[in-house]
Amino acid sequence: MDDVYDASAPAASDRFLRDVLHGLSQPQKTLPSQYFYDEAGSVLFEQITELPEYYPTRTEVGILNQHASTIAEAMGPNTLLVEYGAGASTKTRILLDALTDPAGYVPIDVSEDFLLQTAQGLKLEYPSLPVYPIAGDFMVELGLPEDVAGTPIGFFPGSTIGNLSDEEIDKFLRAARSLLGASSKFLIGMDLRKSPSILIPAYDDAAGVTAAFNLNLLKRINTELGAEFDLGAFAHKAIWNDEASRIEMHLESLKPQVVTIAHRDIHFDAGETIHTEISRKFDLPKFLDLVGTTGWTLSDTWMDERDYFAVLLLSAT
Ligand code: AVJ
Predict the structure, then answer these.
(1) Between 20 and 30 A from 129 (CA), which of 62, 221, 225, 262?
(2) pTM confidence score
(3) Residues with CB under 6 A from ligand 1
């Protein structure tokens, strides 16, 4: 395995504490959704992807499988596949298997542990594929390692783009355009608007896995930052915000309470919530407005037969 190129700035735990205290000091308390994915959170997320109510993963995998050769052809030969967020790599394998002579694979993730796991797993299956993991926050401008070859093609699956605000999407697409360069393309998976009767259960499943995933954030703050959240005193909530076209996940305080984190007392009223995640459900024309002036243009779209999910290929302009 090649070395991990560490592009992250301050120590991870300092940043975590700073982000948590900042979020919990806002009038609407918030916690950044990127912190869901510690080891336990990643296991819970993998379980979510297999729930009967959670359609996005299997729908996207279906689209990728069905159109793999067309997508690979559109990407071209000699692709250096640059993946934003190193996940379970099922989707990565679909592309790698379809691509003609991929030049290499560059997973980018904030978690060095995931990067190593992903990179090592792929190394076993694709022994001749160069892998260049980058540890860092993909919202900031990163550089590619110097020794990479091939045409960089971005890959951002899973509708993770739905976790970002308009401003963040703008910043992210510009940063990606600058990392990937003038001859690049970008394959992005996004969840689409649909009935709340399908959306709500996908984020509030009968088995309670999504609730455990949401509450795991508080557990993580307890273990890593020495806080004392009583997990039984908070409840998972999934809300459909129609105007903003997004699912919001919250943790609702079931009683008035005070939680101490790093000598700071955080007060909660009964019924007050911590907003933990937005999961946007896109409308294609509106998304293309956002793409607008970021240096990308739409070149292809693939969808499932129910129009639940879209996989877009953008080209650098
Ligand atoms: C991985 C961010 C795309 O928003 O659907 C699943 C995370 N949250 N269930 C999503 C998630 C609750 C997921 N993303």
Answers:
(1) 62
(2) 0.93
(3) 48, 56, 158-160, 162-163, 203, 210, 277, 279
Nearest CA to ligand 1 atom 1: 160
Backbone angles phi, psi at 212, to 5 degrees: -65, -40
What digits encode the pLDDT tens for the residues 221-258? 999 999 999 999 999 999 999 999 999 999 999 999 99
Amino acid at 137: D
CB burial string 229-248: b at 16+ within 10 A, e below: beeebbebbbebeeeeebbb
Dist CA 145 CA 211 (whole Å): 39
Atom number in ligand 1 closest to CA 163: 2
Inter-residue contact 60 to 92 (CB < 8 Å) = no
- Residue located nearest, by CA, to atom 5 of ligand 1: 279
Cα(147) to centroid(ligand 1), Å: 34
Are residues 233 and 254 in contact, defined by beta-carbon separation less than 8 angstroms?
yes
Q: Atom of ligand 1 at shortest distance to CA of 45?
A: 6
Q: Which amino acid is at 169?
A: I
